[in-house]
Automatic annotation (TrEMBL):
The keyword Protease does not apply. It comes from Rhodovibrio sodomensis. Keywords: DNA-binding, Phosphoprotein, Transcription, Transcription regulation, Two-component regulatory system. Pfam families: Response_reg (PF00072). It comes from the Bacteria. This is Response regulatory domain-containing protein. The modification 4-aspartylphosphate is found at D62.
Amino acid sequence: MTAPPETLAGRHILIAEDEYLIARDMEHTLVDAGCAQVSVVPSIDACLSAAAHSRPDAVVLDLRLRDGDAGDLARQMRSNGLPVIFITGYEETAIPDDLTDLPVLAKPIPRKRLVCALVTALEARFSR
């Protein structure tokens, strides 16, 4: 088994965010934090395709994407063993009841908070 991460070095993170500037800011933040690959997609369909083809280490999902609510997508990613972090400009009460255990970051997202949330999620994945 691989050792748990203390950083994001070498990791592949998939971001599903349909607001271009927010997506690019997160991408640059994660590259600066050492990620080997950051994939950015604007929709649920694109996220499903990217996850199937690229096997990310974790997924960051906007709660509301251009093609719908990301609740079912989060459920599927989690059932595939991927850590999921929600990002949203909505109140946390907008998150489906069965997904309230997932980390939630409110927009605008401080860079350090995004990195720390991903490191924590990846550490939890390795401690199971």
